[in-house]
Amino acid sequence: MLSTFLAILRRDLLLSWRGRADLLVTLAFFVVVVCLFPFGVGAEPNQLRAIAPGVLWVAALLASLLALHRLFAQDHADGTLEQLLLSSEPAVLWVLAKIAAFWLTTGLPLVIAAPALALLFDLEQSALPVLTLSLALGTPILALLGAVGAALTLGVRGGGMLLALLVLPLYVPVLIFGAGAVDAHLGGTGAKAQLLLLGGGLAGALALAPWACASALRIAME
Amino acid sequence: MTISTTTPGRAAVRPPQGWLRFAAPQQFYPLAGQLAPWFAALAALLAAAGLYIGFFVAPTDFQQGEVYRVIFIHVPAAWMSMFIYLIMAFWSAVGLVMNTRLSFIVSQALAPTGAMFCFVALWTGALWGKPTWGAYWVWDARLTSQLLLLFLYFGFIALTRAIEDPRRADRAGAVLALVGAVNVPIIYFSVQWWNTLHQGASVSIAKAPSMATIMLVGMLLMALAAWMYSIAVALWRVRALILERERHTEWVGAVLEAEAKAAGGVR
Amino acid sequence: MLQATDLACLKGDRLLFRGLALTLGPGEMLRVAGPNGVGKTSLLRLLTGLTQPEAGEVSWHGTALRRSREDFHRALLYLGHSAALNDLLTPLENLHFACAAAGDADVDEEACMQALVRIGLARQLDLPARVLSQGQRRRVGLARLFLSFHRPLWILDEPFTALDVDAVADLAATLSDHCAAGGTVVLTTHQEAPFARAPQVLNLGAYAC
């Protein structure tokens, strides 16, 4: 069972490496969106400091949304998904492997890039670990919820926009607690509560989302 | 190896007896047609009574003045929009577990009504907010969750409309409704949390201070009217969906012919 | 034993066929025939459990597919229209992954290499799949046959498409061998192939609605 999980994880990571230009696009999108905000709201340092957590979080959320359609599209087109659904291993297992590979290649780079971008907004040094930790806990939830949406809209016309419509309302709690963690730290109340809630959310999403995603994929392949 | 046709064997399958037989679209279609007008009539009566009490009998609120009367529409609409999502999720679960097509049709028939109530609640909330808060929209926890619920409705409707294959649309919509239902409490809780951190609206729309008994009666009447209206409209929409889905079957042809004949006779 | 009773298949809102029943035991080969659009692929997908029938039931050794999914998928090899190849991976990587994903974790790279050599792709082992010809892509998919003799039921959708004459003969011999060893094969094809024993034919056109 573990060997199947690892085989799928290894294959998806290898594919991402061979098509690494796509990954750079996601990261570049994140950077560019973040850099747009000072042009829109003005470069007043206090204001930038105040909006930094929200801006970084919203941009990370949009960047991971943008990458979602890649999660199953290629496997759907070339018939691999069909073969995976006929596997004698439980579907939840390989769905989880695919989501893990997806997060490692699209979510993790955002988590790593965010502190550097936060410096552009003059965010307090002490808040950087909180920002990183909140993204490290939050972006996997985004990937898990997004995978369900990607499976539901697989092969549907206008799928990209539809995916955004389905998934964004579900992302709101993650955004609230993620950006809220950094705000709470800056406000002096401590970010422990928000981070714990994000951790709990991650555990819940890990338990439920792969299962919903697997049934959505089975429905999509009918 | 044996290969055979068993077409005559199909007749041997006994249709379910008792009330369960209405789970077959063919049986439910005439039943829905008979019931819907009654529910519609009840809705009209209850709404007339509720509006009369709300706008003429109930006293003016000494704090909020006449504006508070919007709660007679706002609160039942908000309640209904949440109930309908739960009912949709319930029928979706039933459909996925029992594999009954009618359950999916019912949940899809309910969605536009739910979205409509959601919108009415937001609209009346904004109208109430202007004189009370001085702005049409504040990011009040209740209003914000209501807005997100509206987006969930939009997502459900858009997904079921975008998928061509009715079977896949049914099931994909059902999974989405269930995912949404799991998330609704989480969204509500998170928005509440976020709201208390950022700003607290001192007056909330559902808490009309010192609710007189007569106000409560008016509101309950309106809530009942909303229930009856939802049921009537859902039944009519179910009928339309059944006809669309089963348009290739013989019984739909017969029904359409009979209805055309009846309409011709009246004219 | 693969059994289907009273099968009806709905595609979109069109009923393709209904009232179809079949029973296939060990050692039997069935060829599903019929004109385009009659529902051959749809029937094969029903038999694999990928889609659910509108009416009727498919069962494996007397248990409905719904209730024996894992056992059934351990016994099944299905090769569909598309070869399930990723363009960025080599034939060897593709084949090795396909085996691991299907649950055959014990198939190692060496065995995959032998299967590819056996099917005539010795010189393409390390090329990315996107440079392969149609016939070569097909062969990568078919190489799984040589690693799947432990799976009794093979369901193959147009396995002979894009293959040259020699490859067709070789494949037909492999399928015949599998049946002789107690396996069961269901396939669709438009061309004649030199099987050791002529397969039974199901003419799907007769059940069309």
UniProtKB/TrEMBL annotation, chain A:
One function term, GO molecular function aspect: heme transmembrane transporter activity
Bilayer topology: Multi-pass membrane protein
Membrane-spanning ranges: 21-39, 51-72, 93-121, 127-154, 161-182, 194-217
GO BP terms in the entry: cytochrome c biosynthetic process; cytochrome complex assembly
UniProt keyword annotations, A-Z: Cell inner membrane, Cell membrane, Cytochrome c-type biogenesis, Membrane, Transmembrane, Transmembrane helix, Transport
Coiled coil: none
NCBIfam families referenced in this protein's UniProt entry, alphabetically: ccmB
InterPro entries for this protein: Cyt_c_biogenesis_CcmB, Cyt_c_CcmB_bac
One GO CC term on file: plasma membrane
Coarse class of the protein's main subcellular location: membrane
The keyword Iron is assigned to this record: no
Highest taxon of the lineage: Bacteria
Protein name: Heme exporter protein B
Gene name per UniProt: ccmB
Family: Belongs to the CcmB/CycW/HelB family.
Species assigned in the record: Pseudothauera rhizosphaerae
Function: Required for the export of heme to the periplasm for the biogenesis of c-type cytochromes.
Compartment(s) of residence: Cell inner membrane
UniProtKB/TrEMBL annotation, chain B:
UniProt keyword annotation of Cell membrane present: yes
Highest taxon of source: Bacteria
The keyword Cell membrane is annotated on this UniProt entry: yes
Gene Ontology cellular component annotations, sorted alphabetically: plasma membrane
Assigned keywords, A-Z: Cell inner membrane, Cell membrane, Cytochrome c-type biogenesis, Membrane, Transmembrane, Transmembrane helix, Transport
A Gene Ontology biological process term: cytochrome complex assembly
GO molecular function, one term: heme binding
Mode of membrane association: Multi-pass membrane protein
Transmembrane annotation, as ranges: 35-57, 77-97, 109-129, 141-160, 172-191, 211-236
Main localization of the protein described in the UniProt heading: membrane
Xref: Pfam families: Cytochrom_C_asm
Ranges where the Cytochrome c assembly protein domain occurs: 38-198
InterPro entries linked to this entry: Cyt_c_assembly, Cyt_c_biogenesis_CcmC, Cyt_c_biogenesis_CcsA/CcmC
Location(s) in or outside the cell: Cell inner membrane; Membrane
Record family assignment: Belongs to the CcmC/CycZ/HelC family.
NCBIfam families in UniProt: ccmC
Function text: Required for the export of heme to the periplasm for the biogenesis of c-type cytochromes.
This protein's name: Heme exporter protein C
Species in which this protein is naturally found: Pseudothauera rhizosphaerae
Gene name in the database record: ccmC
From TrEMBL, chain C:
Top-rank lineage group of the source organism: Bacteria
A GO BP entry: cytochrome complex assembly
SUPFAM superfamilies: P-loop containing nucleoside triphosphate hydrolases
Name of this chain's protein: Cytochrome c biogenesis heme-transporting ATPase CcmA
Listed InterPro entries: AAA+_ATPase, ABC_transporter-like_ATP-bd, ABC_transporter-like_CS, ABC_transptr_haem_export_CcmA, P-loop_NTPase
GO terms for MF: ATP binding; ATP hydrolysis activity; transmembrane transporter activity
Keyword Translocase applies: yes
Matching SMART domains: AAA (SM00382)
Organism: Pseudothauera rhizosphaerae
PANTHER family attached to this UniProt entry: ABC TRANSPORTER I FAMILY MEMBER 1
Gene: ccmA
Keyword tags: ATP-binding, Cell membrane, Cytochrome c-type biogenesis, Membrane, Nucleotide-binding, Translocase, Transport
Name of a matching Pfam family: ABC_tran
ABC transporter domain sequence ranges: 2-208
Transport found in the keyword field: yes
